């Protein structure tokens, strides 16, 4: 039966974007990645209302008189606890995707959004500030899981010629989530004091759509074949995602990757960090994921209104200026998505970080001289917009994409765990210390972000190769010289004895039925 399914697909390998591929990319991103962007920006508009709520309830319950400094600490905790939840979720990624699969993990973790959304939605009615903080933490756990699982899932179901395009679909939805939060936070909509709990709980609606529709799509073919050894489910998934084309050629490529693995078991984080075959890949994901968050983008997202206020924008117009930056984010994200397969990963990363570094320096200069030169306030706003545009074009999505591309199947979950933890730890650091950093250093704090952006750009120029249109095995071989690994060693240390596995990497089954034997020998 499996052989017949393969022989029906005797055309050239499919590289076209099918409806199923596009639909699952949008659906997975809509109910997961978009929530990350929404939660980043949703606390910006009702910031004063949340502080007032904390002040009122603490005085009612405990008789405390809360000063402005303590309110700033509590609000910073509300902002940054989301990142603590995200880091917790990132630590769970490896175990979850190995046990439940990529799609299965996305479906099962939707329950976290419903719990977190309910806590935040009823916090004001219950007069409990802790419900806001706990709700933010729980939604952060969901975002920490999905932020790694969505690009992993899309990277594994995409043909190599579309991996970049599909890999940046989540980043578009992150920008879209930020934009939606900014629009709904307008005073004309949900930006009123009585509506902020509703605004923060709206995350449940995209998740509900995802929960209803995503289970109807297949699991990752690479997960089914390499980790589960289910050839029939793999063929069915590829037929669904490719529609036309030679899926046998893709199965051969997956088999080649499986043979190059030192083990078909998922590598632990410790195993990843001590494996010299992936030393420079690990260093690369450390640099790009820390650089992505310490570039200053989270400071911009979390405290956009305050930045514009300090730049001299009149208060009634700040919310509209913020919404305009959100629209630019979406446009920039789409620009990166539709050009990545033409330009490659490196140009988007290098150009994005260099432009962000230039704009960070521009903010420092413009804020320093805006009292003497009134037009400098507009340059300051332009630099904020430039940082956001430069980030969304490349650095917003490429780090997640190349984390999937730089590692083979056995190392990928651990790589996403490491990348996710570093990403969220950096996110928390910026979210918590930026208000105090701004008070201490003033506009000079943006020079720190400038140096980080320039450093990541230089690292990308000299270290990271172009991965466009390359298989996972080819990318590993590109790093072999940097890791001082002979190509023969890279590919031969994973050859498991065929008496212990069939042609698709299933261990533990010493006997083969006739169908499996025929398929293995045909490859």
Task: Give me some keywords for this one.
mainly alpha; 28 helices; disordered N terminus; globular; 523 residues; disordered C terminus
User: What does the oligomeric state look like here?
Assistant: single chain
Using the CA coordinates, give the radius of gyration: 24 Å
- Helical run tally: 28
Secondary structure: helix percent: over 70%
Strand content: under 5%
The overall pLDDT average reads: 82
Low-confidence stretches: 1-14, 490-523
Helix vs. strand class: mainly alpha
Largest sheet: none
**In total, how many beta strands?**
0
Amino- and carboxy-terminal Cα gap: 16 Å
Using the alpha-carbon principal axes, give the shape. globular
- In N-to-C order, the SSE pattern is HHHHHHHHHHHHHHHHHHHHHHHHHHHH
List the helices and strands and how they pair.
Blueprint: H1 2-7, H2 19-41, H3 47-62, H4 68-100, H5 102-108, H6 110-121, H7 123-126, H8 129-157, H9 163-167, H10 169-184, H11 196-201, H12 204-213, H13 221-227, H14 231-242, H15 247-259, H16 269-274, H17 279-294, H18 297-302, H19 304-310, H20 315-343, H21 345-369, H22 376-393, H23 398-405, H24 412-441, H25 445-462, H26 472-478, H27 487-492, H28 514-522
């Amino acid at each position: 039966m499996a052989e017949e399914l393969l022989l029906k697909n005797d055309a050239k390998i499919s590289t076209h974007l099918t409806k199923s591929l596009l639909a699952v990319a949008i659906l997975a991103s809509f109910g997961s990645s978009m929530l990350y962007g929404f939660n980043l920006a949703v606390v910006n508009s009702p910031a004063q209302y949340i502080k007032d709520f904390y002040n009122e309830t603490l005085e009612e319950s405990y008789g405390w008189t809360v000063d402005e400094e303590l309110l700033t600490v509590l609000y910073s905790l509300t902002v940054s606890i989301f990142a603590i939840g995200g880091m917790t979720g990132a630590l769970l990624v490896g175990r979850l995707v190995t046990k439940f699969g990529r799609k299965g993990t996305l479906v099962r973790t939707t329950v976290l959004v419903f719990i977190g959304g309910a806590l935040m939605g009823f916090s004001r009615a219950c007069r409990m500030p802790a419900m806001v903080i706990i709700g933010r933490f729980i939604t952060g756990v969901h975002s920490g899981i999905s932020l790694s699982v969505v690009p992993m899932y899309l990277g594994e179901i995409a043909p190599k010629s579309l991996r970049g395009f599909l890999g940046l679909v989540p980043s578009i939805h992150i920008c879209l989530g930020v934009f939606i939060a900014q629009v709904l936070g307008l005073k004309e909509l949900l930006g009123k004091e009585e509506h902020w709990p509703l605004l923060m709980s709206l995350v449940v609606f995209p998740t509900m759509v995802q929960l209803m529709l995503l289970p109807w799509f297949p699991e990752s073919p690479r997960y089914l074949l390499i980790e589960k050894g289910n050839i029939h489910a793999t063929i069915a998934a590829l037929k669904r995602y490719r529609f036309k084309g030679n899926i046998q050629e893709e199965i051969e490529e997956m088999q080649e990757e499986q043979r190059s693995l030192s083990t078909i078991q998922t590598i632990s984080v410790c195993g990843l960090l001590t494996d010299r075959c992936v030393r420079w890949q690990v260093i690369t994901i450390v640099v790009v994921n820390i650089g992505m968050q310490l570039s200053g983008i989270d400071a911009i997202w979390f405290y956009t209104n305050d930045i514009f206020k300090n730049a001299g924008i009149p208060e009634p117009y700040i919310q509209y200026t913020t919404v305009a930056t959100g629209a630019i984010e979406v446009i920039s994200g789409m620009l990166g998505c539709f050009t990545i397969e033409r330009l490659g990963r490196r140009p988007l990363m290098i150009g994005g970080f260099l432009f962000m570094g230039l704009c960070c320096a521009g903010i420092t200069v413009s804020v320093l001289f805006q009292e003497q030169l009134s037009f400098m306030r507009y340059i300051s706003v332009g630099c904020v917009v430039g940082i956001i545009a430069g980030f969304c074009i490349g650095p917003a999505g490429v780090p997640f994409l190349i984390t999937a591309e730089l590692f083979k199947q056995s190392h990928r979950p651990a790589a996403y765990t490491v990348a996710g933890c570093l990403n969220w730890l950096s996110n928390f650091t910026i979210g918590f210390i930026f208000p105090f950093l701004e008070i201490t250093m003033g506009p000079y704090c943006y020079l720190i972000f400038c140096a980080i952006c320039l450093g990541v750009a230089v690292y990308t120029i000299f270290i990271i190769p172009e991965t466009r249109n390359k298989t996972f095995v080819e990318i590993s071989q590109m790093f072999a010289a940097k890791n001082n690994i002979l190509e023969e060693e890279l590919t031969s240390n994973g050859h498991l004895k065929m008496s212990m596995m069939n042609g698709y990497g299933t261990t533990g089954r010493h006997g083969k039925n006739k169908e499996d034997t025929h398929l293995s020998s045909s490859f």
